[in-house]
């Protein structure tokens, strides 16, 4: 189990389950059942550690791409790229941060909802199920600092996601600038637009157990 997008002092971050030998659960039904049993927002199955081939599941569905699973898997496997159903994800280590490079069109639909102040985002109640909402506000617009919370809207027990790289990627693509995002209770996500429609997403990763 990893924590991905941890804060500056190593706390917070979104939990991620990683099955390092995906061959022990080769079928999609088995993987879905195991991901539901673990109950993390996402679980990664590694099908080829040398080539970085991975398969990502929420408790209820398979995902072609997801941000914090890719950052966590890239850190754990220490590979230059990951192979996902959505496409090949670039990966690199840079000091305390692990970065991936992906495309906004790989991200499933999300509602990016801007609020006037960070306090409004902090005070939001859980929205109704059904709509995936990324609520955000500027903390410091000139510096690119943002406060955000993520509500997946799924009926799987994950009411709020602590840190979501894919939604941060979408927001970066929309705003067209590098961002420093504080999400959830204290997780940190860094992003940066890249040429030709690519976006980098980075954060700290820690091995929990």
UniProtKB/TrEMBL annotation:
Q: Which domain of life is it from?
A: Bacteria
Return the SUPFAM superfamilies for the record.
Diaminopimelate epimerase-like
A Pfam family that the UniProt record links to this protein: PhzC-PhzF
Q: What is this protein called?
A: Phenazine biosynthesis PhzC/PhzF protein
Matching entries from InterPro entries are given as: Phenazine_PhzF-like
For molecular function, the Gene Ontology terms on record are: catalytic activity
